[in-house]
Amino acid sequence: AVVSTQSGHYGRAGDPFFNILLRIVSTRCMMQAVYFCSGMLPEEEYFHYGLAVPMYTHFTSPIRRYPDLLVHRLLAASVGQDKTYTELLDRNIVHEWCENMNYRHHQAQLVQRASIALHTQLYFKDKCMDEDAYILFVRRNAVVVLVRRYGLESTIFLKAVDSKVEFVYEEDKCKLTVGRVTLQMFDRVIVQISVEDCNIQHKKLRMKLVNPIIPGVSVEPIYVTMGNNDEPHVPRPDSARH
């Protein structure tokens, strides 16, 4: 299947990475799964959207062992096999524990993201390189891209040097036209990756658009050395169009 027949669109539904892009975009609209006590919510709210099942709980998850233990103890207490944790029969107490697990899980996610950001900055320190990327989302004055090689995601704000450059945003078509160039969801582009260190306490990864070439918006490519033959190489997408 072909998502779009326009020249330059990365629209082959049979391509494995295109399927990954679709999953990334589709899961963004899903609510975060949370732990809850069944006695505190109506049954119609038990549904697990991500797994598409009406009811779900952990039991032998190797990465969420504490919720597993809580479920095991709750089952044992419910059938009268273990009276060690009688407080498990109090739904208000279980609700508090669930809220604490949700809080701890969220904090762990924040730590993970911060760790990834730190090590990403260390890797790209003193580097500036051009890489293939794919547009995940289109905004009024920006595009959100995913760099496949590193799994990096970033928002590129498009600012024209010339105020006469026209921006036309079509939200219903997930499309942004800048001058004579159209950027659309799932397009393949080239971005320039570097670390912005103007503020030593708030260093951050910065991406800029290289290709497609938009006069007054995109930047010049950087030639990076690849391998041991010292031959300059710049990735060239097949999606640049005017």
Report on this model:
By secondary structure, the protein is an alpha+beta fold. Helix content is 25%, strand content 24%. It has 3 helices and 10 strands. The chain has helices at 16-27, 65-78, 91-124; strands at residues 128-138, 142-147, 152-157, 167-170, 175-178, 181-184, 188-196, 204-211, 224-226, 231-233. Strands 3-2-1-7-8 form a 5-stranded antiparallel beta sheet. Strands 4-5-6 form a 3-stranded antiparallel beta sheet, with no helix packed on it. A hairpin with a 7-residue loop joins strand 7 (188-196) and strand 8 (204-211). The protein is elongated, with a radius of gyration of 24 Å.
Percentage beta strand: 15-25%
Overall 3D form: elongated
**Gyration radius from CA atoms, angstroms:** 24 Å
Query: Helices and strands: which structural class?
Result: alpha+beta
Taking the alpha carbons of the first and last residues, their distance comes to: 25 Å
Q: Helices and strands, in N-to-C order? A: HHHEEEEEEEEEE
Biggest β-sheet: count, sense, barrel? 5 strands, antiparallel
The residue-averaged pLDDT reads 80
Assembly type of the shown chains? single chain
- Strands side by side in the biggest sheet: 3-2-1-7-8
Low-confidence stretches: 1-11, 224-242
What's the tally of helices?
A: 3
Number of β-strand runs: 10
Helical residues, percent: 10-25%
Keywords:
elongated; 242 residues; 10 strands; five-stranded antiparallel beta sheet; disordered C terminus; alpha+beta; single chain; three-stranded antiparallel beta sheet
Chain-wise SSE layout:
Layout (H helix, E strand, L loop, with lengths): L15 H12 L37 H14 L12 H34 L3 E11 L3 E6 L4 E6 L9 E4 L4 E4 L2 E4 L3 E9 L7 E8 L12 E3 L4 E3 L9
Antiparallel strand pairs: 1-2, 1-7, 2-3, 4-5, 5-6, 7-8, 9-10
